[in-house]
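Researcher: Please translate sequence to structure tokens.
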Amino acid sequence: MLDPVPAARPATGLAVRCTRALLSPWSRFSLLVAVLLAAAATTLLLDPQRLLARGWPAQLSGGATAVLLFGLAYGVSTVAFVPRPLLNLAAGALFGSQAGLAAALAGTVLGAGISFGLGRVLGQDALRTLLRGRWLKAADGQLSRHGFRSMLALRLFPGVPFAAANYCAAVSRMGYPPFLVATGLGSIPNTAAYVVAGSEASSPTSPAFLAAMGFIVLTGVGAAVVAWRKRHRLAAD
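Model: Translation complete:
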């Protein structure tokens, strides 16, 4: 009589254990930290904002191809923590108000989408376990329940750093489409002001430049007032 074939045993080898360890939430979060540190180091070494503003090839100073390439470079640069105001000023200086605004907005949405994707895939599972503080829980609840309007408000009032808003939204339960739409719409006013200021930088006394700078100052003051009121309201709760 033939001996019965033994039942297959679950795989418990070294390869399986290594795979589980590499795919664990904290391993993915470590990868996210490594990616962000590499991006920050690249920014410090290469100074891409100077390259975009001054080292842009002369043959790519106009046309749809140049605008598209600048938008792609803009998006990657925001992931690497290059300040958006500098990129917006460069967009206006290189392409003028209309084309510069199109390139800057495209780059803004692209960079936000990349950051959101990285944070959602690599960091959400690990970071959600750390949401114990009152402020963190309040921010998570607001973004999870009222994601679109909350992100729209964050983009309209430039009090929260661009990268911080991206990763806070990624850790929350906010959906991808509302995040991108709110980012695109909410970024228009402030981005337009910086782009116009960049395009009119050679004429600092022109009405367009003065209006743009006035808008930037007013929104900055408004964001500071809103943040101060929110802080005291949370402290009182």
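Researcher: Any highlights?
Model: The chain has a mean pLDDT of 79.
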